[in-house]
Amino acid sequence: MEKDVNVIEMMKEKGAKGLRIIKFGFLLFIAFVIVLMLNPFVVIGAGERGVVLNFGAVQPIVLGEGLHFRVPIVQKIVKIDVKVHKEQVDAEAASKDLQDIRSTIAVNYHILPDKANWVYQNIGTAFKERIIDPTVQEVVKAITAKYTAIELITQREKVRSEVRALLKERLVAYNIIVDDFSIVNFKFSQQFTQAIEAKQTAEQLAFKAQRDLERIKIEAEQKIAGARAEAEALRLQKENVTPQLIKLRQIEASIKAIEKWDGHLPKINSGAIPFIDVKSFDKE
């Protein structure tokens, strides 16, 4: 009997112990579900910063990359992207000579990481529409108005540098850093474009005419130089013609005529018979 009683008591103890384990496991499960529902952990990814809100109020602390704990219900974490972004903005302005200019501007920028909370509190997440686009428009108009349309073309790099410097100055006040800036394209009115094309055509024709004129001038100078050289040669030849040279040429001509004569007189005499003055050979 005593053995049966002991066995029953042991079974009761084991049952109570198993029940406590089940209860403890159930409580752990409930706690796990509650933790999941409250989500007390937050992960800040690469190129992001976490803005801490206590009941909606922005806190001075900015969370860096990694795993962070937040107080459930009390705190909310807003993730801000601080990587470099590229925005392309179309801007319209007027040049110094009142030509309408349409330009496409590309801006590379990023939010200053340590000031992500300030940007969120004062600007929000739509800083492109609220700050960047209007500032680009304003800066482009201010710089473009300093140059004529032709200068905007010929001094493009200088214009780019001035716009970039002024844009950096304006945006840094909002804790937005300009990493790079470029003018993708300048577009002018159709009338101005046609005027530029006509001017280039005229310059090309003027250049061609100038080259042709220089070529003609050189050719004329060459002809003049050739004529002068020929005249000089004739003058020198004339100076070298002496009575002795003339007599020598006559003798040479007479000798050639004798060499060609076959010894017969012509049968029909229609004129004077060629006469060779042999005595003249002995005068010298």
Please tell me about this protein's structure.
- This protein has 7 helices and 8 strands; from the N terminus they run H-E-E-E-E-E-E-E-H-H-H-H-E-H-H.
- The chain has 284 residues and is an alpha+beta fold.
- It has 3 domains: 2-81, no CATH class; 85-188, Band 7 domain (Tetrahydropterin Synthase, Chain A), CATH 3.30.479; 241-260 and 274-284, no CATH class.
- Strand 2 and strand 3 form a beta hairpin.
- The chain is elongated and about 180 Å long.
Which properties best describe this structure?
single chain, 284 residues, alpha+beta, Tetrahydropterin Synthase, Chain A, three-stranded antiparallel beta sheet, 7 helices, disordered C terminus
Strand order of the largest sheet: 3-2-5
CATH homologous superfamily (4th level) name of the largest domain: Band 7 domain
By CATH, the architecture of the largest domain is named 2-Layer Sandwich
The unreliable regions are 278-284
What is the CATH domain class of the largest domain?
Answer: Alpha Beta
Q: Report the strand count.
A: 8
Task: Count structural domains.
Answer: 3
- The computed structural class is alpha+beta
What's the alpha carbon Rg, rounded to whole Å? 54 Å
Shape: elongated
CATH topology of the largest domain: Tetrahydropterin Synthase, Chain A
Q: What can be said about the biggest beta sheet? A: 3 strands, antiparallel
Give the N-to-C terminal Cα separation: 187 Å
The succession of helices and strands, N to C, reads: HEEEEEEEHHHHEHH
Beta-strand content bin? 15-25%
Count of helical segments?
Answer: 7
Helix proportion of residues, in percent?
Answer: 40-55%
Mean pLDDT: 78
